């Protein structure tokens, strides 16, 4: 019995060792059944979600029935959305075998990002060089929302996280109580001339599918290769459009379950936030 227990424990440790099993999405897909999961009629929500600006459509509530809204107001911004989002967030966060998707809306109360009142963690992300790109404010505000709405505390910034060489990377990691969670941040851009408020391109279900496949694989790959293991990841997607959020939710439930795995997808529709993108 002792020998069997030791063997099982060794197997668990081996499984959690940092490594890179699949270097590309194509390699990963060859090992799995990509048949979409279809939601039956009973899983569809028919009631419209009511928000302060009445912008949420019924697809934001797929598998999350409620017709009430909630608003979390901070000194320089506020977040609003489904009244059950906080409960759903926590349920997904603490279940290492569960994925899920939630949509909230973000509205700044200041005209310039430099006027935001930041926590020490948000300030640390802002002032620490990242691994490249112009996404600093999307990462800072991602943390501020997770911190001030859901209780996250910053653990490591992007350049402080260590991986097996050649790994995909994650933007930062946080602690929720005693739970270590990675966070990857994505901005949906190039579909709007933000200042002119004109469409430059149409965000299609096919693009949403490609985005989700790519980013969810990246989450799984970085989680496998990270040295200081976290329990799961949050994929935080910023978008400029409520309709884009709808399409992401619709396509999310068609993604193979193994690719959704235990990633919590948190979609935030940000208005009056051109500098974020």
What does this structure look like?
The protein is of the alpha/beta class and 277 residues long. The chain is 32% helix and 21% strand. The chain has one domain (21-276). Helix 4 (120-127) packs antiparallel against helix 5 (136-150).
Blueprint of the fold:
Elements: H1 2-16, H2 25-29, E1 69-73, E2 77-82, H3 85-93, E3 100-108, H4 120-127, H5 136-150, E4 153-157, E5 172-176, E6 179-187, E7 192-193, E8 198-199, H6 205-225, E9 232-239, H7 242-252, H8 257-260, E10 264-270
Parallel strand pairs: 3-10, 6-9, 9-10
Antiparallel strand pairs: 1-2, 2-3, 4-5, 5-6, 7-8
Helix pairs in contact: 4-5, 6-7
Please give a quick description of this structure:
The protein has 277 residues and is α/β, with parallel strands linked by helices. The chain has helices spanning 2-16, 25-29, 85-93, 120-127, 136-150, 205-225, 242-252, 257-260; strands at residues 69-73, 77-82, 100-108, 153-157, 172-176, 179-187, 192-193, 198-199, 232-239, 264-270. The chain has one domain (21-276).
